[in-house]
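note to self — DONT lose this again. spent like an hour looking for the file last time. sequence + predicted structure for the chain T wanted, 467 res
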Amino acid sequence: MTGKSVPESCDTLIRNGYLITMDAERTVYSCGAVAINGRTVIAVGRDAELSARFRPRRLIDAKGAVIHPGFIDCHYHANIHLIRGIAPDDPKTTAPLAFSDWTNQLEAEDEYIQTQVVGLEMLRRGYTFFLEPGTVYEPDAAAAAVESVGVRAGLADPYLWDVSDAGNSRPSKTARIPNDSERAFKVLGGQLARNKDADGLVRGHVAIYGEGSQSEHLMRAAKDCADAAGVTFTMHHNFTEEQAKREDARFGGGSSMVHFARQGLLGPNCLFVHMNVIRDDEIPIILDSAMSLVWHPGNAMYYGISSDKKPRIPELIDRGCNVVFGVDVAKVWTFGGLEHIGYLVARQDKHYIPATRLLEMRTIHAARALGLSEMIGSIEVGKRADIVIRSNREPETLPGINPVQELLLTGHSTLASTVFVNGKLVLLNGQATQLDQDAVLAAAREMARRVLSRAGYVPRISWPVIN
């Protein structure tokens, strides 16, 4: 008898990394390791201890790079991902191609290809989950694309709206699904069937478009549906001052959020998007409801909303509101850019969001907003193995003295090297493992040109282009 313990087996051991767990204590291991069996994290700790304890079937050496939970984006319109470069960089100009002009031309294959590109871009930026707010026409196509890449997504029933005369032109311009109250109530909750598979990459939630396209009746039905299913209820709200005033008038004349609270339409499972306009009497309402807000500081700046209306979200962050990020549409930003923008927006108004809070907003706080805190958002025993290993070969990762600040702020463009989702290796050395990345990108270029041709749009820039 030697007295030595027999090493345990595991599928994967990730070792020798700066491990940011995001657990309740926000434990960081300067030289840490994670053991994975199947879809699940089975051990987290010091590299020396776990390396001695486990004999893995696959060993990943992080070589000192940062290891963190997969980032979560709480609001992204996957089927307009490739409109970027077409949407103008000057918001004061008339867009040569509106979102509805683009989406009206989409077929299921176009949504499939765009969602694949979204997934690939997410992985390279260290994201493993995005919430689509009910604006893909063909959820099955989007789900298949998500699974082909190996990322996670939340999907909702497409375009639920029942009002066309409250300041939102989208219902009247969306030819495929115009304002149809009967349809909205009929399909509500259809995507929740996806939640029967507890191990699936794609989940269902409840979303209505909102922002002047919903009746109180539809809001109540959606909130009740979400409550009964134990899922998130999300919608756009208070994007501009003008729209906020319209909503106030429609819902009794006072601040709309106050009315919603009185009617029992707010709660911890609510996730309202943008909220660029928040009045004094709405602050306690939001805090008391324990709801979450999706912040897009880039969009507010892009449209000049922050210049004429004081942003209240930094104040709400200071006061403990669960605020998360949503990239929305990649106009002049993409995954990984909002944290830096949000930090600067807050500083302009003399607020301070530390890098540690920014990381919480992308991980554990986002998981809470989605009702998935027990599954994702941190690297802990029993949770799903959604794990990112960053590259440490870029100069912006130096000097490595404060890896959290470098990850979120100074080095926010640093790419991921290796990514696991649900315990499966989906990115290795910067390359997707489940599909031919070059083939997807080629298909996406052709798809964008095909959709633009259908819409009658000819790409052009202000400088002369010689063919």
